[in-house]
């Protein structure tokens, strides 16, 4: 006879969102299991039963971030008639999204996550992969711009992609340190002044 377990007494999606916000605000290492249980409104056994481990929960929280928060910025890379407008819109979205607000912490969970070697290997690997994907999105858009004649054929697409990703990551770090939207807008405008042929 099969044993029927007790039904889960919490909303898994809401708990995951709460965990994402704690990890985003504090980072993987500084977030304790007590922090997570308090934010998620569950006890430790329920957390482990639903998510297996802190590491697995973190990876799922990052995936949730990438699906729910990331698109508001990264989808803007396709929002414009030409690459210049797309990158400008991407940085403008960062200006709007990166400063702290009532709903979310400051900065970008992915850009600021797991850059130290103290984190478990799987966490570091996952973060590198997400950041690599972001770089590839920039490369793809800028390569298309070269093919379409929007950028000179001599453009070093890799260098330009890394530059704009670095600008975004720097804006995320500055937002975490309290930079205002106006200050981040100045960074974005300066970065766009470096556009080839600008």
TrEMBL record:
Gene3D superfamilies: Homeodomain-like (1.10.10.60), Tetracycline Repressor, domain 2 (1.10.357.10). Residues 9-69 form the HTH tetR-type domain. Pfam families: TetR_C_13, TetR_N. Residues 32-51 bind DNA. PROSITE patterns: HTH_TETR_2 (PS50977). This is Transcriptional regulator. The keyword DNA-binding applies. InterPro entries: Homeodomain-like_sf, HTH_TetR, Tet_transcr_reg_TetR-rel_C_sf, TetR_C. The keyword Transcription regulation applies. GO terms for molecular function: DNA binding. Keywords: DNA-binding, Transcription, Transcription regulation.
